[in-house]
Write a structure and sequence with these properties.
alpha+beta; Gyrase A, domain 2; 2 domains; four-stranded antiparallel β-sheet
């Protein structure tokens, strides 16, 4: 029977067959793609909702992180300031030492010069110069200084005791280690 169909009609039938086959396959693939899209819509919506929720959370976390970084910088600056202040006030000030020695003065003994030298560990050397009314006043001044626990030694050269009255003196004092005034 096929042989009875003319060649043009046969060609037309093959063309129509392939057209219908391609159309069916096109609709089938379109249906599958459309079905896949419909199936993925809930996942897409869920992911978008989670992204929005986590975006707000991430922004809050970024703000907190920025705040923590600012606090960390402030703490670091405060720590550096504390170290600087600690170094500054680790040893008593020179005026405290001057006040200490001025406290040993009396009516009959006058201090005219106080010389202090400081190193990393504290006061290294102290020299006190002045005039005393008599030897007894100078000896009492030395004794009062030695009685103070902040002063370790007081060197009174014998040449200071050469005169009887209006004695100029020059004392070398060694301070006790790391005692705060």
């Amino acid at each position: 029977m096929i042989n009875l169909i003319p060649f043009e009609a046969k060609k037309h039938l093959v063309h129509e067959y392939w057209l219908r086959s391609v159309t069916v396959w096109f609709f089938l693939w379109s249906f599958v793609l459309l079905l896949g899209i419909v199936i993925l819509i809930p996942s897409y919506v869920l992911i978008n909702l989670q992204v929005k929720a986590y975006t707000a959370s991430a922004e809050t976390a970024d703000e907190k992180n920025a705040s923590f970084e600012n606090v960390a910088k402030e703490l670091e600056r405060a720590s550096q300031t504390a170290v600087a202040l600690s170094d500054r006030f680790a040893h008593p000030s020179m005026t405290e030492y001057v006040s200490l020695f001025r406290g040993f003065e009396s009516n009959s003994l006058r201090i005219t010069q106080i010389s202090l030298r400081r190193d990393e560990t504290g006061i290294k050397e102290v020299k006190v110069a002045g005039t005393a009314e008599d030897r007894r006043t100078l000896a009492a001044f030395r004794t009062r200084m030695l009685d103070d626990e902040r002063i370790e030694t007081v060197d009174l050269p014998i040449s200071n005791l050469a005169k009887d009255r209006d004695i100029p003196f020059d004392l070398s004092i060694t301070m006790a280690k790391e005692k705060n005034l």
